[in-house]
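quick one
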Amino acid sequence: MATTVAHPTTTSYDLGPARWLSCRECGHQSPLAPEFACAECFGPLEIAYGFGPVTRAEIEAGPKSIWRYRSLLPVPSDVHLYPNTEPGLTRLIRADRLGAELGIKNLWLKDDTGNPTHSFKDRVVAVALAAARELGFRVLACPSTGNLANAVAAAAARAGWRSVVLVPSSLEPAKILMTAVYGTTLIAVDGNYDDANRLATELAAEEEDWAFVNVNVRPYYAEGSKTLGFEVAEQLGWRLPEQIVVPVASGSQLTKVDKAFRELGELGLVEPVPYRMFGAQATGCSPVSVAFAEGHDVVRPVRPDTIARSLAIGNPADGPYVLDSVRRTGGAVTDVSDAEVVDGIRLLARTEGIFAETAGGVTVACTRKLVNAGQLDPDADTVLLITGDGLKTLDAVADQVGPTATVEPTTASVRSALCAV
Ligand SMILES: *Cc1c(COP(=O)(O)O)cnc(C)c1O
Ligand SMILES: [Zn+2]
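structure w/ pyridoxal-5'-phosphate:
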C-alpha cells in the first residue's frame, strides 16, 4: 500500500497482518497496544493492516472455522494451534419459503445459531482472546447483554483462563444459566447494559491484567465480525450479495461486515461490485434507526425497553458509523415493534425450521418492513444475518405457542381434535 505517512514503529507483537492502530475520527496512528481511544481526540481506534497476498485456495484449504481467515485478522499466525471454541463457518442456506412470504426472489440466511454458544458473539470473542493472549493478558472480561457473557465464559473455560462478566441483573434466566455453567465469575449489576458498560470502563482502567473484550481490546474484538462478511462471500461462491440485513446493537457488526466486503474487493478475492447495507433495530431501542429517519449524523442515546435484549444498547458506540455505512451504500436502518419481533421469530421458524432468538425476529421483521416500504429491492440477491438461537429467549414466544390439543390416548380423540382445528 503506497503512502507518504510516517507510521509509528511497530511493536514486537505477532498480530498477523495488523500493523498499527488508527483513529477513526482524526486518523492519528499509534502502535498496536491494548488501547481503544485516540490519545489525540478520544475517537475510537481501529486496526490498520498491511495485508500480504491472499488467495481463495489458501483460505479454502484452511480450518473449518473463522481461522481460515486468520491472514485477514489481528491474531497471531499460529492462532489455530491453541485451544479455542472454533466458531464460524456456520451454514448459509437458501430460504425460498421465507423469501416467498417476504416477496424476495433470492434470499439466503446466515445461520449463526450454530456457533459453540449459539450466537455470533463466539466470533468476536475468539479474536479478542487470541489478541489478548498476545498482548499479555490472562483474564477475559466483559459487560454483556447476555450473548457476549456466554461466549466469554465458554472461550475462557476452553483456554484455561479466568473470566469475569458483568450483566444487567434483569437478564433472561437462560442467559444467566448458560454463562454461569462455564464456571465464570458472574456479576449481576443492578442497572441496565449501559450501566454495566460504564462500570466495565472504570474497572478496565484499574484492573490492568483484565482484557475486557469489548472495552480495552475492542479494536481487536470488533474485527471478528468481519468473518461473517468473509463467510457470506465465500459461501455465495466468492461474490458479494447485493443486499444484506444486519441487526444493530452497538453497530459494530454492521460496520465490520461492510469493512469485510470492501477488503475482499480490495484484495481481489471478489469482484468489487456495489452492495447495500441495511440495519435492523427494535423500536424499544432504536436510536440509530431514529437518527437515520431524521437525517442526523449523531445518535441520541435512549433508555432501552424491548424484548430484544441482546440488541438493547441505548448508547451505541458505532451508531454514527452505521449511519455512514448505510448512507454510503444506499441502504437504510429501520425498526419494528416487539409484537412484530415475535411474528418474525415465528415466521422464520415456520418457513425455514430455524428457531432464532429475538435479534433474529428483529432482522426478519425489519426485512419485511423494508420490502413493503420499497427500500429493499425484492429482485436483488439478499442475505439476512440470523445471529442467535431461540433457546436463549424462550419467554418471547412462551405465551404464543403450545399444544394444538390435549387428548385422551385414543385414535378417536385425536381424530375429533383434528376436526376441531
Ligand atoms: C451482540 C449481538 C448483535 C449485534 O451486535 P453489535 O453490538 O451491533 O455488533 C446481534 N445479534 C446478537 C444475537 C447479538 O448478541
Ligand atoms: Zn483521533
